[in-house]
Design a protein that fits this description.
Oligomer: heterodimer
Number of domains of chain B: 1
Radius of gyration of chain A: 24 Å
CATH topology of the domain at 56-300 in chain A: ABC transporter involved in vitamin B12 uptake, BtuC
Structural class of chain B: mainly alpha
Order of helices and strands of chain B: HHHHHEEEHHHHEHHH
Number of strands of chain A: 4
Strand order of the largest sheet of chain B: 1-4
Order of helices and strands of chain A: HHHHHHHHHEEEHHHHEHHHHH
Number of helices of chain B: 12
Number of strands of chain B: 4
CATH architecture of chain B: Orthogonal Bundle
CATH class of chain B: Mainly Alpha
Strand content of chain B: under 5%
C-alpha cells in the first residue's frame, strides 16, 4: 500500500522521511528561537528564568565546545586533551579586542593602560550605530578568537600530531598548560594583563537588534545562533569526503594510509578546525562570564568536557549537545539542592547534603556511565527527526504486517 | 661560580628534594604504564588522598607512628581498589576507554576530597623528625630536604632488586613484555597487576609524607600538578624504565626550581617548563632516555 503511494511521486521512503524530517527540524528550530526571543524580551525575569537562562546559554556554549572536541576525539580518533588551552586563547583574543578604549586604563591598571588602545565593537559602533556595531564587532572578534586558536593549533600540530594515542594526549595537555603559563606571564602583561582578569568587554547583554523604533535584546538568542551555525558547519564537514577520511583514520590508521589518505594533512585539518571552534567556544564563554582569567582554564576543564563527550556518546554530535545541556542543567540547576542541605520537596534536612556533595554524586554517575554504559546516551548514532519518522513508520509497517499475518492464519 | 652556586644553593637543594618526591610518584606511573599501557591519571590524586588521610588521622588523635602506617595501608588499599573497580572491567576495551575511566576516577577523587575538606586548604601535620630546621652551607631548610634523596635512592635500589631478582619481579617483567603470552605461561596476571599497584601506591604514600612535609597544605587539586610532572618524568626517562623515571624526576625537580631563581616573573613558567621538556623529548627521542623502541604491529 505504502509502496504504491510512494511510487507515484518517485520517492523512496527514506527520501520522504528525510524531507519530512528536514521540515520538522526547521519548524522546531523556529519555535526554539521564538521561545528564546520571547524569554529575552517579553517574559518578566522570575526565579525560574534566572535559573533557566544561564543554563541555556552555558549549555549552548558547552555543546559547541563538546562537539568540536568530539570532532577530534570521536570522529578522527585523535585523543587530544588541549581543549581548555584553545578555549583560553579564544577567550583572551576575544576580550582583548573588545575592551572599549576608555576602559583600558582601568582594566590594565598595572600595565599602564595596555598596548592596544582600540576596541573593534566600539569602532564599528561609532561608524554604523551602537547596536549593529557591537553585534558585528562581537562576531568579528569571535572569528578572530577562532582564527587565533586555529593558528596556534596549526603551529603545535606540526610536532604534536606525529605522536600517537596517549603520547598525543599528554603532549596536548602539556601545551594547554604552557599556554596558560604564557598568558599569565607578566612579560606579556600589556596585552594579556598578566595574571589579572580582563573585564568590561562586549558581552551577551550588549547584543541587541533594532527593528523600527524598538530595540530587542538577543541575550540568549546570540549564543544559540553562533553555536548552531558552528555545529552545522561541523556536521557538514563530518558528512563530507573529509569527514569520511577522518572516520577512516579513526577506524584504522594504517588501512586509511594504504587507501591513499594523507594522514598528516587530514589530522591537521581536523585538529585546526576543532581548535577553531574551541576558540569560538572560548570567546562565547568569555562573553557569558563577563570576566576572563587564565587560571580558570585548567586541565580539569578539559577533563570535564571529555566526560560530557563520553556521556553523550563518542562519535555522536547530537549526543554531545544533549549531554552538554543535561550536564550544565544538572550541575547548575537541578542538582543544586544536593549542596544546600535540603531535599527539594518538603522541608527535610539531610546532614550529608552540603557543599560539594553534588559533585560527588555527579562523578559517581559519570563513573557508572564510563564503566557500564560506555556508549553514552547516543552511542555513535544521531538524533534526528528523519530517523524518528523512519522508526515510527517501520514500527507501523511491522504492526500492519503482523495484523495481516494474523488475519491470514 | 662558587659564589653563584652558594647564592642559589637553596634552589638546587629544594630541586633535589622535590625531584626525589616526584621520583617516588613517577615510579607508580611508569610501572603501571609498563604493564597496562595506561596513563593512570588518578595516581596524582591517590597521592593527594594519602596527604588527606594523614591530616585526618592526626586530627582524629592517632599517634604519629600509627598515622604513618595507616596512610601507607589505606593508600595501598585505595590504589588496588581503583584498579579492581575502574580498570579491570575494561581490560579488553580500547585503550582510550581505560584512560577515560582513569580521568573519571581522578575527577571522583578530587570531588570527594572537595566534599570532605569543604574546599578549605588543610594544613599538614609536622612530622617531628622530618620538619626539623637545619642549615646546610648557608641555606636553611627542613630535614626532609636531606632525607628525600637518600630515602628515594634506597627505595629505588630495593625496587630494582625486587624486579630483577625475585619471582614476582620476573613475573612483572614478563607481563610488561607480553601480556597474553605471559598469561598463557601460567602467570596470574591479575595478582601481578595488583602487586604493581601496591608498589606504586606504597611509594606514592611515602612520597606524600615527604612532599607535604615540605609544602604543608593539602587541597583537593594538590595532587594534579605533581602527578602530571611525575608522569612527564616517567616519559622523559623512557616509560616503563624505573631508573629512567627517577633520573627524569630529579632533572625536572631541579630545573623547575632553578627557574624560580631567575626571579619573580619567571615562576609562572616553572610548571610550564616541565611540559616544554616533555615536548622536546617527545620530538627528539619519543621513547625517552632509557626507553626501548616499540614497534607497531599492524
Amino acid at each position: 500500500m505504502n509502496e504504491t503511494m510512494n511510487k507515484k511521486v518517485l520517492r523512496t521512503p527514506d527520501e520522504v522521511a528525510k524531507r519530512q524530517g528536514m521540515w520538522l527540524t526547521i519548524v522546531a528550530l523556529a519555535i526554539l528561537y521564538a521561545v528564546l526571543f520571547a524569554l529575552d524580551n517579553f517574559i518578566k525575569p522570575s526565579k525560574f528564568t534566572l535559573m533557566l537562562l544561564p543554563v541555556l546559554k552555558k549549555g549552548a556554549i558547552y555543546s559547541l565546545v563538546c562537539v568540536s572536541m568530539n570532532l577530534l576525539n570521536g570522529f578522527t580518533g585523535l585523543f587530544s586533551l588541549g581543549q581548555a588551552g584553545f578555549m583560553l586563547i579564544g577567550a583572551y583574543a576575544y576580550s582583548i579586542f573588545s575592551i572599549p578604549a576608555a576602559r583600558h586604563a582601568a582594566v590594565y591598571q598595572y600595565f599602564d593602560g595596555g598596548a592596544l588602545q582600540f576596541s573593534i565593537p566600539e569602532m564599528l559602533g561609532n561608524a554604523i550605530g551602537v547596536n549593529l556595531g557591537s553585534f558585528l564587532g562581537a562576531i568579528i572578534c569571535i572569528i578572530i578568537a577562532g582564527v587565533a586558536a586555529a593558528i596556534f593549533a596549526a603551529l603545535i600540530g606540526i610536532p604534536v600530531l606525529r605522536l600517537k594515542s596517549d603520547y598525543l594526549a599528554i603532549a596536548t595537555l602539556g601545551f594547554a598548560e604552557i599556554i596558560r603559563a604564557i598568558f599569565q606571564w607578566n612579560g606579556l602583561g600589556t596585552i594579556t594583563n598578566g595574571s589579572n582578569l580582563l573585564r568590561d568587554y562586549t558581552i551577551f547583554s550588549d547584543m541587541k537588534i533594532q527593528l523600527g523604533a524598538q530595540v530587542f535584546k538577543l541575550n540568549t538568542v546570540f549564543p544559540f545562533l553562533i553555536a548552531m551555525i558552528c555545529i552545522i558547519i561541523i556536521v557538514l564537514l563530518i558528512n563530507s569526503s573529509y569527514g569520511r577520511a577522518f572516520k577512516a583514520i579513526r577506524d584504522d590508521e594504517v588501512a586509511a594510509e594504504a587507501m591513499g589518505i594523507n594522514l598528516f594533512k587530514h589530522k591537521m585539518l581536523s585538529f585546526v578546525i576543532s581548535s577553531f571552534f574551541a576558540g569560538v567556544g572560548g570567546a562565547l564563554l568569555a562573553m557569558f562570564q563577563s570576566t576572563v582569567q587564565a587560571s580558570a582554564f585548567m586541565s580539569a576543564m578539559t577533563y570535564e568536557l571529555l566526560l560530557i563527550v563520553v556521556i553523550g556518546g563518542i562519535g555522536s554530535v547530537s549526543g554531545s549537545c544533549v549531554a552538554a545541556f543535561l550536564y550544565i542543567a544538572c550541575s547548575e540547576w537541578w542538582l543544586r539542592f544536593l549542596d544546600s542541605g535540603m531535599l527539594p520537596f518538603g522541608n527535610i534536612e539531610v546532614s550529608f547534603f552540603r557543599d560539594g556533595f553534588r559533585k560527588v554524586v555527579f562523578s559517581v554517575v559519570i563513573m557508572i556511565i564510563v564503566l557500564f554504559f560506555s556508549k553514552g546516551i547516543m552511542g555513535n548514532k544521531e538524533l534526528s527527526f528523519a530517523g524518528l519518522i523512519k522508526k515510527i513508520k517501520s514500527k507501523k509497517a511491522a504492526k500492519a504486517e503482523k495484523v495481516k499475518e494474523g488475519g491470514a492464519a | 661560580m662558587i659564589e653563584f652556586l652558594h647564592e642559589n644553593f637553596r634552589y638546587l637543594l629544594s630541586g633535589i628534594s622535590v625531584g626525589g618526591q616526584y621520583a617516588l610518584i613517577a615510579i607508580g606511573y611508569t610501572m603501571v604504564y609498563g604493564i597496562l599501557r595506561l596513563i593512570n591519571f588518578a595516581h596524582g590524586d591517590v597521592f593527594m588522598v594519602a596527604g588527606l588521610i594523614m591530616v585526618y588521622a592526626i586530627a582524629g588523635g592517632l599517634p604519629m607512628w600509627l598515622s604513618i602506617i595507616l596512610v601507607i595501608v589505606l593508600t595501598v588499599v585505595l590504589g588496588v581498589a581503583i584498579e579492581r573497580v575502574a580498570y579491570k572491567p575494561l581490560r579488553s576495551s580500547p585503550r582510550m576507554s581505560v584512560m577515560i575511566s582513569a580521568i573519571g576516577v581522578s575527577y571522583l577523587l578530587q570531588n570527594c576530597a572537595l566534599y570532605f575538606t569543604g574546599g578549605l586548604p588543610r594544613s599538614y601535620p609536622a612530622i617531628p623528625f622530618l620538619s626539623k630546621q637545619i642549615t646546610i652551607w648557608g641555606a636553611t631548610t627542613k630535614m626532609v630536604t636531606l632525607i628525600t634523596p637518600i630515602l628515594t635512592l634506597v627505595l629505588v635500589l630495593a625496587l630494582v632488586f625486587l624486579i630483577n631478582h625475585t619471582k614476582i619481579g620476573m613475573a612483572m617483567r614478563a607481563v610488561a613484555k607480553d601480556f597474553e603470552t605471559s598469561q598463557l605461561m601460567g602467570i596470574k596476571i591479575n595478582s601481578v597487576i595488583s602487586f604493581t599497584f601496591v608498589i606504586g601506591c606504597f611509594l606514592a604514600a611515602i612520597g606524600s609524607l615527604l612532599y607535604f612535609s615540605n609544602y604543608t597544605t593539602v587541597v583537593p587539586t594538590s595532587g594534579a600538578m605533581p602527578g602530571l610532572k611525575a608522569f612527564v618524568a616517567a616519559v622523559f626517562g623512557g616509560i616503563g624504565s624505573i631508573p629512567g623515571a627517577v633520573i627524569g624526576a630529579f632533572i625536572i625537580g631541579i630545573c623547575e626550581n632553578i627557574i624560580k631563581a631567575f626571579g619573580q616573573s619567571w615562576t609562572v613558567f616553572s610548571d610550564a617548563f616541565t611540559f616544554v621538556l616533555l615536548i622536546i623529548i617527545l620530538l627528539v627521542k619519543p621513547t625517552g632516555i632509557f626507553g626501548e623502541k616499540a614497534t607497531d604491529k599492524v
